Amino acid sequence: MNFQEIIGQLETAKESRINYYFVTEEQNQEIYALLVHVMGYMDKLYLVEVVFTVLKELLMNANKANAKRDYFTRENLDIQNPKDYQKGMSLFQENIIQKWSEQLEHLDGGSFYISLLMKVEAKTIHFAVENNAPITTEELARVNKRIEVAKNYNDLADAFADVSDSTESAGLGLVLIQLLLKNSGIGSDKFRIHTNDKLTRATLTVPEVTTPLEITTNLKTKILNEIDGLPPLPHSLTKIIQLCNNPDSDFNMIAGEIEKNPALSADLLKLSNSAFFANRSQVGSIIQAIKVVGLKNLRNLLYVSGVRKIMDGQYGKMMDVWEHSNRCSFYARYLAAEHTVTNKIVDIIAVSALLHDIGKFLLLSVDRSFFKKIETYQRGSDSGNSTLLEEMAIGLSHPQLGALLAEKWEFPADLRVAIEYHHKPFMAPADLRDLVEMVYMANMMSDFQESKKGFYAIDKNLLAKYSLDDKEVFTKAVKKVEALYKATNV
Fold this sequence. Notes:
Hypothetical protein af1432
């Protein structure tokens, strides 16, 4: 896929067409990277996740439609014959969905195709997904029913609770599309499905002006009230933070304040003696520990200590969130050691990764079962991140909630940015993008290790940046750093 050639076609208002026999997860990864280019060129980067989610759903539907017709042909069944259709569909899950990895072999080089088309007119972008499989009367009725049902929902929570049609493993797909387009400001009327006796074509038009809806839900109100009610960071910690930020502070004064807090003293000594600082001799005093870790790392330790104290006190010990965060922080330090990073971000990488998911505490505290359902819905898939689903469910995602907490507790700008954009590094301010990209990669590697995400869900450009764009190389790297992580956490 030649990105520059496609951008050149769009600049001259030519239609760009990419043809497939079967759209693989690797090709979806390329499409995502292409959309970052295309939407960036159109100054609509904020819509990348929405457009990609819609196009991926349409491409998957086209894959399934072609696979179904290929299966009917191989079984000598007439898809237009009601009896044959019922017979073929009774085995659809078993012979198609459950053997999905085999469908590429059946379709590659065959008579069925899928096309992704793009065209720019003025400042409007037109997308289309086309496949040469006309929709049957029964399929069209089911599609129209889902689109009609989607009009009844304002958020994803209602849809999850109500939509039960899982025929052909389609599930919530078309409902998700309608909600996404409506809530993003693109408009559900900008999506159309056309069919004739030769092909099916789904079109999406992204207009020049989009005004996202303000999603208001009971969950959103409850969470925002929860943020308002959270206490500030403990005064004993903010006092030390102020001393760290004061260039005239005396190390003995700082050490004296830390020694008043036994738990903080233990954490500081543990940090100063860790492999991260590679000391030749054991650090035994607080003032020596301060000199080893430096004031920036000490300040970061204070933020972590304060957040953990508040979160564990308010919501109990959510060990699954902290375990993921600890792993992510270790992976981030590993990446920092393997790749050259600027002095500006080296001190903040580990704590940014450790605190990147603080917004999840709020989501899980108000409705743990629902947000676990979202995670399960995407677990192990290459469907990208779940933040869009969170936004559709309550109007806020966990990175946005984390940023609100960071603002409440007066975190430094670099830490707030890392938390807010760790799922969308391409949206981060340019001067902090290296930091956010490293936290993003550490998070995705952790998700891969925890079977939450597949390799092809990861941004292709960033994989290339870290020389991890080969799946086997990436898998070996994750195994290596995971072994190191476990060895240091015995």
